[in-house]
Structure formats: C-alpha cells, structure tokens
Amino acid sequence: MTTLDHSPLTNPAVIPDHVTRINEAKTPTGPGRPGASTAHITASTAHLSVEDIERIGAELEAIRDEVMSSLGQADANYIRRVIRTQRGCEIAGRVLLLGALFPPAFVLGTASLAVAKILENMEIGHNVLHGQWDWMRDPEIHSTTWEWDHVSTAAGWQQTHNYLHHTYTNVQGKDRDIGYNVLRVDPDQPWQPIHLIQPLTNMGLALIFEWGIGMFDLELDDVAEGRATWRDKMPEIKKMARKAGKQLAKDYVVFPALSGPSFVPAAVGALLANTIRNIWSHAVIFCGHFPVEVETFDEERLENETQAEWYVRQMLGSANIEGSALLHIMTGNLSHQIEHHVFPDMPSNRYSTIAPKVRDLCRRYGLPYHSGPMWKQYGGVLWKIARLSVPGGHETIEKRRRKALPVGRKAAATLRRLRDRAVPQAA
C-alpha cells in the first residue's frame, strides 16, 4: 500500500501530492484519522492530515524566524517616522481649530486631527501595546509604558484584546469579541428579539466605538452573570473613569478654551474627529473579523490544541482588506488581519512582506485565504448583520459560508473519487 511522504518540503513551491490529490492510498485523511481530534476538523481542514497541519506550523515558524531575526534600524526608523507624522498632524489640527470660526480652518483642522487620532490608535497604539516594538528597548515606545489616545486604559485593553481575543480567537464562549456582547454576528449565537434592531445597534456602536470598547473592556457582564461583584469591578471602573475624564477634558475643554471665541466650533471639530476615528476603526475591525466566510469554533476545539492548530485557527478566523500602501498604514496594517493574528507581536510594517508567503501557504495546502477590497468586505459584514437580525437568517449565512469554501468542496469531491478508485484495488 502506498504511504504518505511526510519528509520536510525541499521546495515550498512544489505542492505535496497528498495535499492536492489526497493520495490514492487508503490511508485515513479525514475525520477519524489516527492522532486527530474531530474537534479540530472543519470543512476547510478535513482534507489535511495531522502531519499537514504540523508542516503548516513549521513553515509559519520559519517565516516568523526570518522576519524577527532581521529586525533593525530601518524598522525602528519606520515607527519613529509614523509617530512624528502623527504628532505633526495632531499639532496642525489643534492649531487650525484655534481659528475654527473660519470654515477652511475648521475643515482642515478637523481632518488633520482625525488623521492623527486614526494613526495613533491603529498603526501606533494598537501595535505598540501588542509589544511589536518592545525589541527596540525604547522606554517611550514600549507595551508597558505606552498610554494611547483612547478612553480604554492600556492595561484593560491588553487583557481583553491581547490575551482573551488573540488566545481564543473566534471560539464561542471564550472570545468575547464575537459580537461584543451586543451583536449577533455568527449563526451559532442564539437569536433574541433584541437582535431585530441590531442594524441600528451596529450604526450606534460605530459612532461611539471608542466608548463601546471601553465599556466592553470592563467585562461588566461578569456582574450580571454572577462571576464578579460591583466591588470587584470598581477599581477598573475608576481607572477608566479617570482616563475618560482626561480625554474629555483634553478634547472638549482645554484645547477649545485656548481658541477663545472659537470654543464651540473647536469642540465640535474634536467631536467630529473622534467620530471619524470611531467609524473608521469600527469598519477596519469588523472587516477583519466578521465577513461571512470567516469561521468560528466550539470550545472543544481548544482541547489539546497544538501551536500549529492554533495558527490554522487564526488564519481561518480572520480576513484581509486589499488596497494601497496608504490604506494599510491607516488601518494600522490590520488590513493584513490574517498575518496579524498569526503573528500579533510582529512589527506591523512587515505584514505586507509576508502576506504573499502566507497566501501561497494557504494555496498549497488547500486552505481559504479570505481577502477582498474594503467595500466588499464591509458590505458583506453589514449584510451579514442584517440577515442575522432575524430568526431564520442563520440559514442563509451558513449556505453562503459553504459556497465560499470551494477548496473544501473540491477536496471532499477529490477524496470521494480517490476512495472510489481504491475500492477495486482493495478487492
């Protein structure tokens, strides 16, 4: 009987036979294969053997090692340049809003301040707090010292995002980012009457996204469900209240007051800048996490999950946004959400260089690589939210999700053909 060759790939450009043809042998490659837990098998991965998954992990580790061992001055210059640009935009915006009574100054000041806030939250704050730049040993650009322009405290956000979300990505019951406790964004979430208005809820969340994330980071649902008391939560509530108070004073009191007679339009400009930042952040994050094709998983998936299986879960549970270099910077390179979830502590400026390698890896192993322009990704998310607002909407989503996985269907069809061909040989 023919056996599978599981030796290391000598030429990564050559697609292994057992991945493309699943081999004509009777060696088990689907559910029930030796050494595999069925919890780790989805429609996207049923054609892969345990060894295939480990190979994928090994190739990703090699990509990571190559990048992390080559970090140097050019990378440090990049983040410092982005920080200088962000601070320049903020200073320009604040100065222009001093004359906010004049329409051109109001428009340009608001736009400049909005750009500054987007850059600070996305390409700087989010990524610094992930520890992407800790290797520089710069105390001013370090995950333990950076405090961002956001109502969430850095430490609170790191707990819910860096730990809970990135560890348990898209695992129902563990990843609280699935719907942020207010939206039904997955067919497996039970429908409730409140979901009927979730298209409106989503619009409201986009407008106040900064505050929504801040409240979400407090995990107040623990109190409602009996896992914590208000006394337990009070220290974190006070920390956020102090942080939010400083943000409100800075944007709506101190700087507008400096503008004298332009106080009101200057405050309105800051409000619009924050709103623009909120809507943009919401769009980018939802495009990376909630497109129809993105997969979710049961808690049993975590049982004995290997590092390689974790990598695969990250890729199946994320989606990318295609666009220009400027778009990538303005998204904090979260337009490369797949690469970010696989390597959350890799400097963001490197995601664009490894994205072709990760895409090719998915192609060679028959895994989906969810990617598309922003209009398509966000439009799909809004459609999904609308469909899941009604009781039977999950059926439509599940059908579309299956159609979006041609690799899995082709692999299953190939497997059936090969098994049929193997029957006479067995006789």
From TrEMBL:
- Does the keyword section mention Cytoplasm? no
Single GO molecular function: oxidoreductase activity
Q: Would the keyword Nucleotidyltransferase turn up in this protein's UniProt record?
A: no
One family from Pfam that matches here is FA_desaturase
> Matching CDD domains, A to Z?
Delta6-FADS-like (cd03506)
| Family matches, as InterPro entries | FA_desaturase_dom, Fatty_acid_desaturase
Keywords from the named record: Oxidoreductase
Q: Which residues form the Fatty acid desaturase domain?
A: 105-371
Q: What is its EC number?
A: 1.14.19.-
Q: Which domain of life is it from?
A: Bacteria
Protein's name in the database: Acyl-CoA desaturase
Originating species: Actinomycetospora termitidis
